[in-house]
Here is the input.
Amino acid sequence: MVRVGVIGLGVMGSTHLNAYDSVPNAEVIAVADRDEARLRGEDKSKGNIDGQAEGGFDLSTVKQYTEGTDLINDPGIDLVDICLATPLHAEFAIRALQAGKHVLLEKPFARTGEEARRILDAAAKSKGQAMCAMCMRFWPGWDWLKLAVDSGRYGPVRSAVFRRVGEHPGGPFYSSGVQSGGAILDLHIHDTDFVQHLFGTPESVTSQGYKKVTDHIDHVTTFYHYPDGPHVVAEGGWAMAKGFSFAMTYCVNFQNATAVFDLSKDKPLTLYESGKDPVAVELETGMGYVPQLAYFIDCIQANKTPKRVTLKEAAQSILIVEAEVRSVESGLTQKVSCVD
Ligand SMILES: NC(=O)c1ccc[n+]([C@@H]2O[C@H](COP(=O)([O-])OP(=O)(O)OC[C@H]3O[C@@H](n4cnc5c(N)ncnc54)[C@H](O)[C@@H]3O)[C@@H](O)[C@H]2O)c1
Here is the structure.
């Protein structure tokens, strides 16, 4: 059994608490939040997808800390699950790694590339395993796409378009560009990372974006350049009008098939193969959070370094987003730096 402590009880901490219920070889034994109403379970957060942060985890059954560092110092905890606001990721991940704990760190991996580098250095010296919670890599339908691309069964990908848009979540963290990094880092990174997962690091990016609800980039469209590879675009933002349903979608055109998925519509992932009737692809139900946690817990128990999302890739996704920010600000195509 892996004994877990969760730091930060906002939308993501609550989502992880629910998900651990379905992971038989993990047990949450402690939680930490500075906000005592959240520790008492009185202040509930709401996510942008139905099923996130549903509540129901009985916080009174576990140890409670008002300071995350005290939870890290609890000798009974094997895995520290960090669901804090992004600017706290580096500090808390490094402390937990230095304490020899296993660490699950919410996305984005860090607020900046420099902070990401420091986490990588701490992880290299730690006996703990660490993984960044890039949940789309485990999400039903997106995991299917990764297998379809890697297998080559529909031929090479010619073009891929990803889209993730909704209304602004509100609250001080998501309203501050300094804190959240804007939609370009906080939300759109899911697609940037998935593009990297499928096609590797792009040579350069061309992005356009605008500010509408915060002081940072609230909506972005990026062209990822692969000189010999597919034509890849992702659009992401939280600047839609109130009432707009959150949408995450893709349309991937292979040489011999087209796959279309739109999670906001009540429609299945549909595969169109030349000369055949369209097929609804059968998928696991649910979101990516349970398979993500189950995978990491299995890695910890087997003492194996996670491969489905490596720390280097999680750090690389920050560098790609930083190139996108430079491109929006300069109006020019920007080369992407690589994690050494
Ligand atoms: N993977 C996803 O789908 C997804 C979705 C939403 C958010 N996120 C990410 O999850 C992270 C958290 O987002 P959120 O919306 O849950 O944040 P949040 O601000 O609602 O929650 C963070 C909590 O941490 C607490 N906290 C702050 N400092 C603390 C400390 N020193 N010790 C203990 N608790 C402390 C705060 O009181 C707060 O309740 C962000 O990085 C965000 O980008 C991921």
Remarks:
- The chain has a mean pLDDT of 95.
- The chain is about 30% helix and 25% strand.
